[in-house]
Amino acid sequence: MPHAFISHLREDKDVVDRLAKELRRASIDVWIDRERILPGQRWQVAIRDAIKNGVYFIACFSESYGRRLTTYMNEELTIAIEQLRLMPIERNWFIPVSLDSTEIPDRDIGGGETLRSIQWLDLRQSWVQSVSALIRMMGGNPDKLSESDTRTDPRPSRLSEAENNAWAVALRMDSRYGYQSFLSRFPLSRHAIQAHQAIQIKERNLQDVAMRRANEQARRLNEQLENVWQAALRENSMLAYRDFLDVYPNSKYSSQARIQLSLLESRFKERG
């Protein structure tokens, strides 16, 4: 029987099972490895065959996927992308799905395109509308969505957990970059105002630091100017004033240095 292969992480089992339930209710067969692979089967071969023989490939991305350094889901994506590249460009086969707050990875699929070039389904918006759109695209009947699923969304607790974890990370970092990263992912978060305020404080602090550094540098330069000028006055020679003007041609003492130099040169000529 034609099926839709669902690629996901074990951590996302609950929401993926809820999605699979709705697809099956709409008469769309779903292939999930933990349900379909039998004891004794070579599981890698079974997965490869299921991807190649599937009428759709649904890739479910989440916060958990973003945190993983290695996962077999990446191998499933590689197989699916290889299959996708063999298909006509007008065929809608590969369906990226964002389960929570995660962006679709910018993974190359050939021809100058990435996974982000494919219109993805965002379950962050409305569960019912998103799942209904998926079912319609796959030729099913979204009217069969259960009454409970039109009232409840399986994702809020997961999204809230991801949001709280991200906010905790931002607080630990306590940097402008950390708060900006949080807002880029959760712009409507209940922590958004606090994040914006923290960014403003960090920016003011940076401005204050820059101002203090500029003032300190100006103080040091002025102190150096005073020392060099006093040394030139003590020496009171043509060479000293010429050296001073070479270094400080436009300082507040430059005019006085030129006058002194001119007087010394005139006296030197009179003596000569």
Keywords for this structure?
Rossmann fold; 272 residues; 5-stranded parallel sheet; 57% helix; 11 helices; two-stranded antiparallel sheet; elongated; alpha/beta
Quick description:
The strands form two sheets. This protein has a five-stranded parallel β-sheet, sandwiched between helices.
Would you write up a description of this structure?
This protein is an alpha/beta fold and 272 residues long. It has a domain at 4-154: Toll/interleukin-1 receptor homology (TIR) domain (Rossmann fold), CATH 3.40.50.10140. Helix content is 57%, strand content 9%. The protein is built from 11 helices and 7 strands. The protein has helices spanning 13-25, 33-36, 43-53, 63-67, 73-84, 127-137, 156-173, 176-185, 192-235, 238-247, 254-271, and strands at residues 4-7, 30-31, 56-61, 94-98, 108-110, 113-114, 121-122. The strands form 2 sheets. The chain has a 5-stranded parallel β-sheet with strand order 2-1-3-4-7, with helices on both faces. A hairpin with a 2-residue loop joins strand 5 (108-110) and strand 6 (113-114). The model has no long low-confidence stretch (mean pLDDT 87).
What is the helix fraction of residues, given as a range? 55-70%
What is the average per-residue confidence, as pLDDT, rounded to a whole number? 87
Runs in which pLDDT lies below 50 for 5 or more consecutive residues are: none
Report the sheet with the most strands, covering strand number, pairing sense and barrel closure.
5 strands, parallel
At the third CATH level, what is the topology name of the domain at 4-154?
Rossmann fold
**DSSP strand count:** 7
What distance separates the N and C termini?
115 Å
CATH architecture of the domain at 4-154: 3-Layer(aba) Sandwich
Shape: elongated
What is the string of SSEs from the N terminus onward? EHEHHEHHEEEEHHHHHH
CATH hierarchy, class of the domain at 4-154: Alpha Beta
- What's the arrangement of strands in the largest beta sheet? 2-1-3-4-7
CATH superfamily of the domain at 4-154: Toll/interleukin-1 receptor homology (TIR) domain
Estimated share of beta-strand residues: 5-15%
What is the radius of gyration computed over CA atoms, rounded to a whole number of angstroms?
A: 35 Å
What structural class results from the helix and strand content?
A: alpha/beta
Q: Helix count?
A: 11
